[in-house]
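Second attempt. The first submission of Type VI secretion system protein VasD had a stray character pasted in from the spreadsheet, which I only caught after the job came back as garbage. Lesson logged: always re-copy from the clean sequence file. Corrected sequence (159 aa) follows.
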Amino acid sequence: MTSPRLHLLFKWLFAALLGLLLAACAGGPKPTRVEVQLAGNALLNPDSRNRPSPAMVRVYELKTPAAFESADFFSLFDKDRETLAADLNARDEFVLQPGQTLSFKRDTKPDTRYVAVMVAYRDLEHARWRAVGALNLGKSQVVRINAGPRAVELAVARK
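This time the job returned cleanly.
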């Protein structure tokens, strides 16, 4: 016969094991579904004669925005993967034409907290070439990126 203490110990161990199994079956966090809408202004990236020109655009999924916000343009342009290092989850690159719109949908990685964008404007000294927006985790949302003549804007909204 088993002692009452041993019987109680087995009950506690069984309850703990059952709790661990249920926690493991609960799954990870719900993915964050985003639709990115990218719009180039008709006067995007003007040259010296104010004629619109295409611009290179990069969209990033980031864990934290600190490295992106503190980096200079050329560090991001030339070696973004090294500059962003552990903060970078994903990266997309496009050549955006004046007046063009693009969109894509994706489920972000579980630890993505921010979406960021950079635009390679001709006149960097007078341009606002980057923007960052925080995501609402586990919610479907729209990320609207507007590349204006010399400034990029990013807004995140629930879908």
